[in-house]
Amino acid sequence: MTMTNTQSLLSEWTALSVDVPSAVDLAGVTDVDTSTISLMFEWLRQSRARDCQLHFLNLPHNLTSLATLYGVLDLIPTGPAVAGH
Fold first, then answer.
1. For residues 38 and 5, is the Cβ–Cβ distance under 8 A?
2. What domain of life is recorded for the organism (predicted)?
3. Which residues contact 35 (CB under 8 A, 6 or more apart)?
């Protein structure tokens, strides 16, 4: 989830038209940059506009470190980690 693919991920998310509480599992994500955080906040903005809850599961350590560095970790709603990840 880096600048090279965030636009396509955003387009895919927008096309989903999710209107039920949802979770995004980030267990398989290995590469992140600042655009990852921007993408996550855009997903949250779109979800709230649809009056839908969204949270993230299994934030990778490098994403947690980056969000902490920018002071936004507490703004990212997270759910419980999934066992085995």
1. no
2. Bacteria
3. 1, 2, 3, 6
Whole-angstrom Cα distance, residue 74 to residue 60? 15
Range of the domain at 43: 6-75
Query: Domain for residue 41, yes or no?
Result: yes
pLDDT in tens, the chain (85 residues): 666 767 777 776 666 666 656 889 999 999 999 999 999 999 899 888 888 888 999 999 999 999 999 999 999 999 865 544 4
The answer as to whether 80 is a domain residue is: no
Q: Is residue 83 part of a domain?
A: no
* pTM of the entire predicted model: 0.79
